[in-house]
Amino acid sequence: MTASRPDLRTPTYAKLICASLIWASCWSAPVQAQPMGLPSMGSASAAELSPSLERTLGDAIMEQGRRDPDYIADPDVSQYLTNMGRGLAAHSPITVQQPITVFGVRDPQVNAFALPGGYVGINSGLVVQAQSESELASVLAHEIGHVAQRHIARGMTQRSQSSGVMMAALAAALLAALSGSGDLAMGVAAFGQAAAVDRQLGFSRQAEQEADRAGFEMMRKAGYDPRGMVRMFKQLANASRLNEGMGGGDYTSTHPLSIQRMADIENRVSEMPAAHPKGSDSFWYIRAKLRVMQARDGQSQRNAVEKLQLDASQAAGVEQSAAWYGLAYAALQKKDTAQAEQALRNAQKNGQGSPEVAGLAVSLALAQGDNAQALALAQAASDRWPDSQGIALARVESLQKTGQDEAAVQFLQQRIKQWPDVPRLYQLQAQSQERLGQKVAARRTMASYYDMTGALATAVEQLQQARNMTKDFYVQSELDVQIRTLKERLKADRELLERFKS
Hints:
Helix content is about 70%, strand content about 5%. With about 500 residues, the protein is mainly alpha-helical. Among the domains are: about 50-270, no CATH class; about 285-355, no CATH class. It has a 4-stranded mixed sheet, with helices on both faces. Strand 3 and strand 4 (about 120-125) form a beta hairpin. The longest helix has 29 residues, at about 475-500. The two termini are about 35 Å apart.
């Protein structure tokens, strides 16, 4: 049913960026110029890289990037970050022309980056180092400020040698990936290339200050404490000094902190009345999970567990519960279900509850082979937290494990109406449809999945397979229309990318 996907043992993001920059340099002379002093957005820039083309670029990059082992596909992380991003974007002083999608990257470096098309990547290290949700929101708001001002789109089309090389290399890789006939490693390298875009662009002081001010307004109107931006600035400046001479990767290398920028935000904060910022419990649970996720080797894993144990013994309330949750998650990753069960009970003490904790309880029951208990827990959690994608996916997994694929399909149909832009829901629905013998429907659903993830060529293949499986004239006619529409989009995308290849 699904197209085969090779197991890509790609390097970390830092190595991807280095490799992609070397690759880009093969196209032309070394980078010399940097676009500076970007003014307010004008119609000429919009004509050079329209929002439609920008989204095409972003979709193509993400289709490859989702295959990278450092891409975090965890539904709790993705939903939390994207909800925060969209909540901030809703209060942007400038209309954001792209839907904001925020994804996590498994990397302890304190960093974040914006891609074309409204995609924003957040390193796990940034979340872990943030001491409050407002601090995290300040960096995300700044990135959305760049998106709103279209700094990425404009920088990529500057009439300079560096941007020309970058766009040519990026377009060539994406064309290869789009056709499905190129070197797949080159296509994946494009994600590293894109992650390095803001490093190459070298945003001007004016552009950085514009993003700061837009981010400040977003934070204030969305209910976060703008003082979090000041605290994060100071933390980043300190981290930059400590890491000086140790190589790139930190946020200040791509978004230099000037005295002017810090003074501007401090002055704005000083004029504000005392704030009563909002904060969600999910921040602490997501932070604890990412602390474990980003630990790659034995020593870093031990360090993560020790920090969580310290927080579990010294913190209180939700922060203590989140620390126990992190310890339970770490134990479950090591398949130590007994230790995970004990830590999870500690996380639930004093009535503490969250969709993250409830979802982990379902995962633990599944790991223990108690599928019926997992389903009961998932159903109860789904009733309590109907807006949690993680809980919904846990319920689907429990239904599938107990052989209730028909119920899973019905539940997924409801969730797809609730979250029409979550590709994983379509993939799971196709799996259950396949087991139920609904071969044509399964392939049509998988076509939707591939369409949403930017793999248009694979989506066409799925629809063609579905057409060959049915004799129903009306279904064939519907499929013919879908195939023709996708082929036209695929052709248009190729033509758009060809513009930047030369």
